[in-house]
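Hey, can you fold this one?
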Amino acid sequence: MRRFSLLVVVFSMCLFGVSAVRTAEGAAGGADPLVWGRHKVVSETYDLGDRAFKLPGGLGRAELAGVVHHPRGPRGKRFPMVVFLHGLYDTCTGGGDAGTSWPCPRGSRAIPSYRGFDYIGRRLASHGYVVVSISANGINAPDHGGPSREGMNARGLLVQKHLDLWKQWSAKGGKPFGKRFLGAIDFMRVGTMGHSRGGEGVVRHYEINAARGRPYGVRAVLPLDPSDFFRPVATGTAMAVVLARCGGKGIGVEYYDDARYRLAGDRGAKHTVTVMGANHNYFNTVWTQDDWRGDRRSACHPSRPTRLTAAQQRNVGIAYVAGFFRSHLGGERALAPMWRGETVPRSIAPAKVLVSRLAPSRRDVNRLRGAADLRRNALGGKVTTIGAASVKLCGGPRRLTCLRRPGASATEPHQGTADAPGPGLSVLKISWSGKASYTNAIPARHGNVRRFRAIVLRGALDFTDPGNPRGRPQNVRIKLTDARGRTASAATVRHSAALGFPPPVGADEETPFLLNQVRVPLSAFRGVDLRNVRGVSLDFGTTTKGSIGITDLAFTE
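Sure. Predicted structure:
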């Protein structure tokens, strides 16, 4: 039986001169992503029935239901659209078999996981977006026992079906909205966000949509602490994967790794957002259980100041989910510093966030993808290493371990898992005892780097190597040399926490070897001619011993 429900809630926002492109200052060098926009927000639910959508692969039928948050009076406004997809959770109340049933048995009610992102959707809608969060209980029921390609494909097709519905409602109107959304949506400015298995689902949707003859303009995709069982890839679009340090522990970073150099001339920026102290569940307000497990020795224990509360974590969700779409769909330049990794918004304190960015506009120095890159870099310059105790490539197609002492208490998310087959990330592992350096020569034709903002790499400290002082960061110096032999160097510890020692863990808890961005502005290198740079060096030895992994050395922006 087809049914419609309509719930309208109007939220009055304080205006204070805030708009989609002009926001209050709340972060050093950028806007505060937590402020409300100028639009009053209306929230409405729709439900076309529990069995309205036939799933592929014999999975049965699922609901077509969701909630839409939108600016009041959307008709004819052509707002961007963002679709949210929740992850795997119980489908119905009552426990037992009810939690994996669909439709819900008598006496049980559907668990509204799709409403768990209302706090993000409403905030984003206030800045001039139509935000739709869709229910996927009918997929979670048959897919509950374990991940399947059919289940992930079904999630992607469900997103596409809702876009098709909204295209119809925007073009012709119809039940349950009548003519309210005629001309309300710009389908060439679409974004998607998925949490957990929904994160993998929206990346799979991107592949499905791209293969269509007349695809929607999906310009931004955000997997939120996602699964990555089947390694779908999003290229040609902006993409940010958010990693909860007390949640999936880096699972999902492959979305960034796999997309980096897949498409030549890719104009979509790629990001990782590592959120220290965040668990998996708290991004969804319906998923109230703390899914982290461990003891009091861990920095993730709820009693520790390093662990975020549910409210603090949701501020991060607003900042980096809504902020992503405002930046990459709405073009709000005031938010750019947080996406370059230059700043963290003050308004999300005490949260600590590390952002990596692969910019479309950059000059790759060394991608470190194979043995040839140990001798010649991407620009054709010579690569030399002096004084290092050990230099090797780890990871890669053979998934060679990067840790000196791999074991049960450590994990390497860049190298995938047994559930996510595919190549690992190639990483340059350098160990030293005393002074050492790693240098990439820059040919003269590539020596003018004045148009770039910074030099970047991704790196991580090997926390299993006793050469790294426990609890202390490694302070590598990046040195530029110009054509006249003049040099200038900058300490990475002054600009990045990526080479810090990981926070402590408890029994039966794993520490991920997770690479994050080291970003040093070129303004830090005084006294060298940025029109004639001839070499980039990493100088080690500020600490007597050490061992780190690095990749993706580039001039950026």
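Residues 1-29 have pLDDT under 50 and may be disordered. Let me know if you want another pass with a different chain boundary.
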